[in-house]
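Re: weekly structure request thread

Next one in the queue (65 aa):
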Amino acid sequence: MGINTERDIEANLQIGPTDLGMVRLFILADGIEIPMDFSPEEADEIAEEIRLAATAARKVKPKRK
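Done, posted below.
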């Protein structure tokens, strides 16, 4: 399984600051909770990666099924 493998799983994503000054990505899917904490600097890097991926995705011509 990789980045291009589609799955039929619903998940809830919450993003916010913790009381310890970290940025938390909290994923809930099928009763599984995944808290992922990052320093503000790491969160900035992740945000930049998301922006770059969005820019690249806009240039992709979707394949027809």
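The helical segments are 40-58. The mean pLDDT is 93.
Next request, please.
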